[in-house]
Amino acid sequence: MDEIKTRIYWLMGWRVVLVTLLLGLSLAFQVTKGERVETFYALIVFTYGATILYALILQHLVRSEVLVRFAWGQIAIDFIVESVLIARTGGIESPFSVLYVISVTVASLVPRRRVGLLTASLCIILFGLLTNLQLYGLTETWGWLPHTRLSAAETLQAFGVYALAFLVVGFLSGALADQLRTADQSLQEKEQGLHRLRAFHENIVNSISSGVFTTDAHGLITSFNPAAEEATGYSSEQVHGRPWREVFNWQPEGLE
Length: 256
Fold this sequence. Notes:
two-stranded antiparallel ribbon; 9 helices; mainly alpha
């Protein structure tokens, strides 16, 4: 659960960074050109406000399933916001279409298999919808998607290139995320095995009737069984981490 929360915080952090850099720079550029910037202002304010709201909600979520759904909800809203931005800045000709690629990559933080391909498919659907609306001029009266200057063939070619890029990035990021999760699970299993082995070793040492102690590579005592405590009068806490030569006042022969 803590790992999922950490990934969601990373997701929110990346969102703020990207919005600050991309939209902030674009806003400054548009202002210098004297163009309308209401969309940029609105999206920046919305992103910061939504991130604050997400952070407040996240503090009250506990179950892993709910956290994953919460992350997916954020990703879906991100894609919708990006679609609005792309529609307002030229549709198929918008320079912000690359945001889909970035979002597909960042979405791989969500701990679910094939998340890259799922998000890439969602991007293709949204971008395909925008492309068709723009190609056939279905929203010109709204002033959102002006008719593209590209021909139908060029529009479809551009869409195909973007769709292929979405799929490739989704596949690669998803595969990498799956490998990282597999490696993390393997590491956790090995750590658990090491803990069990250490506990088994301690049980064996403690059950021996003779006095037994163990040390690390530097000669510092790491365990001291009950028989050793009884024989020396020292408790395990008193000798733990101390050099065994110091505890037993031992010196090599010839060194006085």
